[in-house]
Amino acid sequence: MLIAQITDTHVRRKRDLLHHMIQTGRELRRCIEILNALVPQPDFVVATGDLVDRGKVKEYRRLRAILAKLRAPLYVLPGNHDDRDGFREAFVDHTYLPRTGPLCYTIETRPVRLVALDTTRGRKPGGELDAPRLLWLDMTLGQEPQVPTLVAMHHPPFDLGIAPLDAKPLRGREAFEEIVARHGQIVRIVCGHVHCAVERPFGGTVASTAPSTSQQLAFDVGVDGGYGLHIEAPGYALHRWTGTRLETSVERTAQTRRLRAIS
User: Which residues contact 113 (CB under 8 A, 6 or more apart)?
Assistant: First the structure.
């Protein structure tokens, strides 16, 4: 089984550039062309949030037009740049999405089951897993304890060592880790949000983030507490189920260069 992950596409309206220089729509189209050329094709693609940049209707309209070119089945999750109601309306034909409340759902794919968690807290940068969402997760995992499970979410449940991001962590991550540790079938937790590829041991499994399809965060943290951006386009993750474990690789197709410092 092959699963592709794209994240933090930050699509804007046409000719509206991210950071005044990045054509996020073009980069997503390039990434989709690469995914469409994969042999074998992914069994599905999961998009882990921040799919548009400002949560606007025209951004979602453009996003859907670009995603329509994707050959593989697609499952989507919101991030903090998304508007939950706008997201729900934009993907109204994705009938697995709940019509009310957080956009948590399960896709009974096999041999690996997909469990998607909505970690958004409005448009605030930091995420949240509150008591109802954690209860839903606990019950959902308990329904299929023997099936290998991939948990997808936007906000990672760990610190990166980048102060501006770590200052706004995922709320409820301690309780989340307890639930993960109690259920032994989770083969990986895949996340976005941080625009770089990182993995950490977490709750007896592995949690990882995937690169953005446009710009990435740099780890050369300065004494001023800022961080840097790189242009790396496109970037995505591939998760391969071997029958006993999930193996993850990060795929890039362009050179990297320094963009600018962000304070």
Answer: 106, 107, 144, 147, 148, 149, 150
Percentages helix, strand, coil for the chain (3-state, rounded to 5) are: 20, 30, 50
- The H-or-E segment that residue 188 falls in is strand 186-191
Question: Which amino acid would we find at residue 104?
Answer: C
The Cα 241–Cα 249 span in angstroms is 12
What pLDDT score was predicted for residue 254? Answer: 60
Q: Under a CB-based contact definition with an 8 Å cutoff, are residues 234 and 27 in contact? A: yes
CB contact at 8 A, 197 and 209:
yes
pLDDT tens for each residue of 63-112 = 999 999 999 999 999 999 999 999 999 999 999 999 999 999 999 999 99
Write the DSSP assignment of 197-209 as a string of letters. Answer: --EEEETTEEEEE
181 — pLDDT class (breaks 50, 70, 90): very high
Cα–Cα distances (Å) from 219 to 120, 135, 196, in that order, read 25, 35, 9
Residue pair 228/258 in contact by the 8 Å Cβ criterion = yes
Q: What domains are defined for the chain?
A: 2-262 (3.60.21.10)
pTM value is: 0.90
**Is residue 55 within 8 Å of residue 161, measured between CB atoms?**
no
Q: What is the largest CA-CA distance in the chain?
A: 48
Kindly state the tokens that stand for 208. Answer: 């990882």
**Cα 217 from Cα 240, distance rounded (Å):** 25
